[in-house]
Each structure stands twice: as structure tokens, then as C-alpha cells.
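Two records follow; treat each independently.
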Amino acid sequence: MSLRPVCSVVLVLLTAPELLSQTPRASLLQADRSAAQLSSDSGFAFAARTAMSRTTVLLWPAAPVVSGKAEVEKFLRGHQADSLRLTWQPLGMRLAPDSSLGVTWGLAVGSSRVAPLPPRIGRYIAVWRREPERWSIAALVFMGIEAPDRTATWSGVPAVHALSRPSGAAGAFIAADLAFARLAGDSGAAVAFRTYAAEDALSFGGGSLLVQGPLPISQAVSGPEQWGWHPVAAGAANDGNLGWTAGEAIIRDREGTPNYSKYLTVWTRHANGQVRFLLDGGNARPAGR
């Protein structure tokens, strides 16, 4: 199926009630394409202000986790987000059975608006919440895209707090993430990823590498590294069958040197009650954040 980008009045398409008169699948793809086109035409910051929800979680390359629309707004104003020409193209999607939550993923392309640099091709995952008159972005991560300002300081970004126990509508997904992390700590990342990956799971390793299925994913993360992580934000469909967690990770190499990262994981609940991840991807964050 062709997923050609739209190129029309995207701001109207993102907010008009007519958007949700389409099928949920069509309207979600339209919202994703429209946000990408708006980002390309008017800058990512403008697209983000238009498409994000009040509680959006943004996982920007090399930055800390940024949570909440107000903090995202401050972050975008202060960190040259629009010096990066950024767009993306959906390659896949998943809807909750009740269509209250959806996820899109695919290719992202970033290039500089101010310097003659070649474009960088990466990936993205976007989680969308269906609101009365539109789809809005609940969580968003880019992988393999170069951050525009490598010298940025992050003192103005508030620290996020670990979710140490399951609670709320996303409780089952928080519990799964915590158990997933415990298994990785006890038995290694390969065992944990093989156990918690759905049969059709996709993992975005290294930004541009796309790995599918429990065994290939487990092989991709096998090695001497020690993995640890914890969720800091989560959300779920109204019916509890699709959800997401975002969090902070530390991966230590053979010598114990830490690599700081952050992640977005999309989860599904099977008919037997098992919770397994469908999508997993992340990028770097500053040391100690």
C-alpha cells in the first residue's frame, strides 16, 4: 500500500472535526502524515505545538525525557528544534480495538536548515490519543536523527521520576515494563527481550537498524552489557488492550562504563492476559539525567 505524504492545508486537517469522520485507521494515518508535512514546511516546533497533547512525552535525540506540553514548549523554544529540517513517513500502524489509542512508526529524515549537511535517515515511533475532535501525540521518539545543538545544556529540563509501582489505567503496562527490567537484570537482556517480545515485535536498535521477532531481537541485544531501566511515564487505551511506557535506561559495557539512554515501548495485551511489547526504540540522553 502506498503511503504518499499529503501536501495540503495540514493545520486544518489536524484539527477539523471532519478528520474523525473517516475510519479511525484512515484518520490516524492522515494525522501522522499531516504532522510530518507541517514539520517539513514550518518546522518541528510548530508541528509539535499543533499535534501534541497536554501530557505529551517527547524523547528528543540527546536530550533528557521531556514531559508535559508546557515543558515541551519551553524545551523547543530553547534548543534550536527548528534548525533541523525534520519530516517522517509512516510505514506501519496499530490501533487499539476501541480506537482510543494508536501508534505509527516508520522512517524519519533530518537535515540542517542552516548548514549544507547531508540528510540523516532514521526512524520514529509516535503514540496517538484519540480526542473528541482530533488525534494528538501522547509520546514521540526519533532514532538515528542528529540533534541540532550538540553543546546544549539541560539544566532547565525538570527531572522525571521513576514509576516504581503499577497504578492507573496503564498499570498492566507499567507492571510489564518493571518485570521486563527485572528479568534483564537477573538473566540478561537477551532472555528478557526474547521473553517479552510479541511474535510480531519490532525493535529499533541503533537508530536505523530494524529487527523483527523475539529471537532476532534477543540476538541483537545479546552480549556482555548489563541493562537496567525504569519507566517514568505511561498511557493506555480506554479498553486496556494497547499501551505504552517511556523511561530511562543505563547500559554498562564489559568494563562497567555507563551509556545513558531513554526509550519508548508500545505494549499489547493478548487474549490470555499476557502483556508483550510490539515496538521498542530509544535514543541517548545526557549522563546522569
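The next record belongs to a different protein.
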Amino acid sequence: MISVANRFQMIQLGLCFYTSETAGTYIAHPFNIYLFPEDRPGAESDIALDLDGIKFHKDQKLDFNKWIYEGVPYLNNKQEGILRARINEEQPQEDQEVLNLTAEETKRTNTTLNGIKTWWQSGAKEKFVIQNFNPYLRKYMYQKIGKLYPALNIECKSNGKYSKSLILTMLTAESQKCLKDAKIKKQLDVIQRKSGAHKIFKLLSELRPVIVGHGVLYDLMFLYRSFSDELPSTLSEFKEKLHDLFPIIYDTMIILADEQVKKLCPSLKLECVYNTLSKETKMENTKIVLGNAKTYTEHYHEAGYDSYITGSL
């Protein structure tokens, strides 16, 4: 089970929140959210597509275009922590491209960098102009200067159709602070966007609601790995960590193992159980009302609809 939860990514997140209005009347708020992972620190970049799984989802009318083009990104706690820890680091980010130079290019750029060093040490009162560098070398100089002299502003000025110069100027203390604040804000905005569905998980773990699922162990493993942390190596440790997040969890599959319920439900499939129990006279006094516009189609195996039906059980 761990290997499956570690290998595959989540495609959809189905949530249905139930509130009680009056005796016997419940309001259901179902949501179906497509998930599509972006690049995440410390995570595999591959998306594994199992042929049987893809055929199954195709038969269930899963909208693959919506999954790819509109899927919400997500991080787990560890990945978000890594991104936040990077904010105050001075070194370039891990995803910065490594540029390799020839011996001649290295000699030329080193000469220019030595000139910048002399200019810097003299007080950098005037502008420093770098000319006649091709786009590749200009990119290399951007990286090197940004790392060595964060207090410098680098402006690229066009000298005509094909020629551009890099102009270096010293930033004031106030400008440096504004630049640093803008950089931090930009990084925080990226984290906020990449966090995506993780914000829902964090809110749920703060609210600590009663969790209900149908054969819920796999769901919980995917939720934990995708939004919290790496899966523990033992079941006992996983249960301990999971119950720290969600103290009360009901699995309708376990409830259906009751001998009296077994007599009513010959099959444990969600659709069969729901159709059987909805016809029971004991359920006539229970009313379930949809509280928000549908974000799902009434089709089994779509996460939002399955969560609605599971909550109804």
C-alpha cells in the first residue's frame, strides 16, 4: 500500500462538509477539486500514468483537460518549509541554470569582474558599463553580479538592433531595502500560489473535524503524503501521526462489516450500499439538502460526488 501511495499522485480531491440544521435535516456542501502538481522541492518530477488506471478514469468521464490546465497545485508541510527557508538565503536558487563558459569566455568575464571589484572598492560613485557581451554572457554576468554584489542595480540598455549594454549603479540603503522587500514578497507570492490545496489541508488540521470515508485508508495515505509529510515506515507510526491531525475517523466499510448491516447490503460498492440504504424506511426521516452550487457531476468515482454519497451513508 505504501508503494502505491508513494508512486502515484492525486488527481482529484473530494470534500463534502455536513452541518446539522434541524433534527433529521443535514446540509451538505460538496466540492470537487482537480489537482495537478507543480515542481516541488524534494519531490519526484515524474507523473506516473498507469494504463489500467487511465482507462478506468476515461470510462468514468474524468476531464483530463481540466486536470492538466486547471488543476490546483499543492505542497506538503516539508516542501513548503523548504521554500520558506530559501527566502533569506543569499545563494542562487536550486533551479537557477548552470552556465558553462569556454576558456576564452571565462578569461573575458573574469577580467570584467575584476574591473567591477576595483570599481566597487573605489566607492562605485559612477556607473559601470559592460559592453559587447552576447545574450549568453549577459545572463552569466547577471547571475555572478547578483550573487557577489546584491547592493548593485543591473540595467540592460539597448544600443541598437543587436547591441545591448549592462549598466551597474549602486543602490541607496532605502532602495536596497525596497528591492529586498519586493524580492521577499515575490517569493512569498510564489509559495502562496504553489501551496494551493495545501491551504485546505492546513485549515482542516486546525479545525480537526470528524472524518468519514469509504475504504478510507488509501485516501488518508494519499492525503498525508501529499499535504503533510513522507509516509512513516510502519502502520502504528502512521496511525499515531494521523490521529494527531484528525482524532476521529469513521470508515463506512468497517461499519458495513456489522452483521445486521451485512444482511441489508450484499455488496460493499458505494453505489450499491447507497441505493440499498436510501430505500430503508428507517431513513425516511433523514433529509439531506445541498447547500452550495454543484462543483461535481453526479457520477460515481468523481471525488466530489463520492464524498457527498459517503457522507450521506
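Discussion point: DSSP finds 14 helices and eight strands in the chain. How would you locate this feature using only the C-alpha cell line?
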